[in-house]
Design brief:
The protein is α+β, with helices and mostly antiparallel strands. Helices cover 29% and strands 28% of the residues. It starts with a strand and ends in a 5-residue tail after the last strand.
Length: 242
């Protein structure tokens, strides 16, 4: 293709490679935009959760789709002898655990995991924190969190040698085997003013949608740069015939 004294004459393979790379970069950009929209929806649910009527957690409930950060309440007894320490949780730059305590629901053998908050690791990882809690009947209130379906892990969970059991992620079926009784497929984040809790700075996201927007701009910028380079490299000036 010729425009004045400039001729655009790309070869086949550079064109194919450029189109493939362009497709990848644009896909990554749109994926980041989609992630930003998902985060906006999650933040909206989190903001509206406090104004909704609390969901009563009862034995047998199986589906919690769309209920992330819904207010909820439950009645039962803590199983203090069988607790989990969710590892690699930080607060203000310090390493620690989230304490997950099963609350056995009234009138059943089913329980819900209650996240009672963050505790520091302490002087040594070999010495686990004392997270004992009373087992008297109680009402527990908080927000629902759905365990992530996929979690990146460097290795398998360490086998349990004692209680509380230190874990890397919440895999409900595996925890049910350790406990010997069923769990609701959800975590109840204990409300900040409730007793028997630790540091509870609940937030739905560590990074907001703005970061994803920034990533999208970067991917689209790279796509634009690739296109400009492709056009420049394959465009040549030709001498006009006298």
């Amino acid at each position: 293709m010729r425009v004045g004294s400039l001729e655009f004459s790309p070869s086949i393979w550079p064109t194919v490679i450029t189109l493939c790379l362009l497709g990848v970069l644009l896909s990554l950009g749109f994926w980041q935009l989609d992630r930003a929209q998902q985060k906006r929806a999650l933040l909206a649910r989190y903001a509206s959760g406090g104004s909704q009527a609390a969901l009563r957690l009862r034995p047998g409930l199986s589906s919690f789709e769309g209920l992330a950060y819904q207010r909820a309440e439950a009645a039962g007894r803590y199983d203090s002898a069988h607790q989990f320490l969710l590892d690699n949780r930080t607060h203000e730059g310090l390493a620690g655990y989230h304490v997950l305590t099963p609350l056995v629901l009234d009138g059943s053998s089913q329980a819900v995991l209650v996240d009672r908050g963050w505790v520091p690791v302490g002087a040594s990882r070999d010495r686990l924190p004392d997270v004992a809690v009373g087992e008297a009947p109680r009402e527990v209130r908080g927000l629902l969190r759905l365990p992530p379906k996929r979690v990146f892990m460097l290795g398998e969970e360490e086998p349990r040698r004692r209680w509380p059991y230190r874990i890397q992620h919440v895999a409900v079926p595996a925890l049910e085997k350790e406990l010997g009784y069923p769990l609701l497929p959800v975590i109840l984040l204990l409300e900040p003013q409730a007793p028997d809790g630790y540091v509870r700075d609940w937030r739905p996201l560590h990074f907001g949608p703005e970061r994803n927007i920034g990533y999208a701009v970067q991917w689209f910028g790279l796509a634009a740069a690739l296109l400009v380079i492709y056009l420049v490299v394959n465009t040549h000036r030709i001498d006009n015939e006298q």
